[in-house]
Specification:
4-stranded antiparallel beta sheet; 11% strand; alpha+beta; disordered C terminus; 64% helix
C-alpha cells in the first residue's frame, strides 16, 4: 500500500555529512545536560512514598506545602496531578519512620489543614528495591542493545549492526537529554518507553537495510550511494504510513491518557520522531562510510547473470 509514489530518487546521502553533524551536536548537548542536570528519578528508582490527594475545589498548593513542612518534611515535593483538584506529594524515605507511619502522619496534617482532603492513593518503594530497579533497568537496556547488534550482524553484516546501534543509542540519549533538560520525572514507565523505542527504531532500520540488500542484487551498475538513496526513497511511503499511525495512537495517550501515561507517551513521541530521522539519516550514512558494498551483502549472488531490466529498482 502506498499513499504516494516518488518517481525520482531523493539524494539523501548527499546530505549525510550535514545530518550526522546535526546528530552529533544534538547528542553532545544531550550528554551535557545529562552530566550537568542529571535525571529527575522518580520514586521507582530513588525509593520513597507517593500520595495522591483530591480536593473538591482547586487545591491550594502553598497551603498544602506548608502543612507538609509543618511536620518536618521540607524536602517533600508537592505539585498538581492531572487537574487543579488533584495533588501529588512525593516523600523521601525516613529511616526513623516506617512507610505506613509516614503516610499516616502526612494524611493527618493534610486533613487538619483541610478536612475535605481525600487521600486516594499511596504507593511506596523501599530504597533497596529502587536501587535494584535502577540496576536491572540498565542491564535490560544493555542486553537489548547487544541483542540488536547480534541480530543485525547475523541477518546482514557487522557494518549494519554498528550503524544501527549507533543510531538507536542516538535516540536513547536524545530522549534522556530531553528528560534531563526539562527535569521531567524518569520512572519505570519511561524506561519501558525507551526499550520500546529501541525495538521500534531497529524495525525501521531493518526495513531500509532489507531494501538496500535487495537493490544491490537488482541495481548492478549503481554505486552504494545510488542504491541507498533508492532504498530510502522506495520505502518512504511505508515509513510515512507507519509512523503516522503510530504517532496517532501515542498522541491519544499523550492527550487523554492522564498523568500516569503522560511521560510514557512523551518519551515515545520523542523516540518516534528521532527514530525516523536516525534510521534514515544517521544509520545509512554510517553504514555507507563503514564500507558496505555488494560483495559483503550478497556474496556469490553477484556472480549470477541478470537481465538488463533488473538494473532499475521497481
Amino acid at each position: 500500500m502506498e499513499l504516494f509514489r516518488i518517481k525520482n530518487d531523493i539524494p539523501f546521502m548527499s546530505y549525510g555529512r550535514l545530518t550526522t553533524t546535526i546528530s552529533l551536536v544534538t547528542f553532545i548537548l544531550a550528554v551535557f545536560f545529562l552530566a550537568t542536570r542529571g535525571l529527575n528519578y522518580g520514586v521507582d528508582f530513588t525509593g520513597g512514598t507517593v500520595m495522591e490527594v483530591n480536593y473538591p475545589q482547586s487545591a491550594n498548593i502553598d497551603n498544602i506545602r506548608q502543612a507538609v513542612d509543618s511536620i518536618g518534611l521540607k524536602d517533600a515535593t508537592v505539585q498538581n496531578f492531572g487537574t487543579s483538584h488533584d495533588v501529588l506529594i512525593r516523600l523521601p524515605i525516613k529511616k526513623d519512620m516506617s512507610i505506613a507511619q509516614l503516610s499516616e502522619k502526612v494524611s493527618s496534617a493534610l486533613k487538619a489543614a483541610d478536612p475535605q482532603a481525600d487521600v486516594r492513593r499511596v504507593e511506596s518503594v523501599g530504597s533497596q528495591v529502587g536501587e535494584e530497579l535502577y540496576e536491572n533497568g540498565g542491564l535490560a537496556l544493555l542486553l537489548v542493545c547487544l541483542g540488536i547488534m547480534a541480530y543485525l550482524a547475523i541477518r546482514f553484516e557487522w557494518r549494519f549492526a554498528v550503524a544501527a546501534i549507533i543510531a538507536n543509542m542516538h535516540d536513547v540519549v536524545i530522549i534522556l537529554g530531553f528528560f534531563a533538560f526539562f527535569q521531567w520525572e524518569f520512572n519505570l514507565t519511561v524506561l519501558a518507553a525507551i526499550l520500546a523505542v529501541l525495538g521500534y527504531s531497529v524495525n525501521e532500520s531493518v526495513v531500509v537495510f532489507d531494501r538496500v540488500r535487495e537493490n544491490f542484487r537488482k541495481m548492478r551498475k549503481a554505486n552504494a550511494v545510488q542504491v541507498i538513496d533508492n532504498a530510502i526513497t522506495r520505502t518512504m511511503s511505508r515509513t510515512v504510513i507507519t509512523h503516522l499511525m503510530t504517532q496517532t495512537m501515542v498522541g491519544s495517550m499523550l492527550l487523554f491518557g492522564g498523568e500516569v501515561l503522560h511521560n510514557f507517551a512523551l518519551a515515545l513521541t520523542i523516540g518516534i520522531l528521532f527514530g525516523i530521522y536516525s534510521s534514515v539519516l544517521v544509520a545509512c550514512p554510517i553504514a555507507m562510510w563503514l564500507g558496505v558494498n555488494r560483495a559483503n551483502l550478497i556474496g556469490d549472488v553477484e556472480k549470477k547473470p541478470t537481465d538488463a531490466s533488473a538494473e532499475v529498482a521497481p
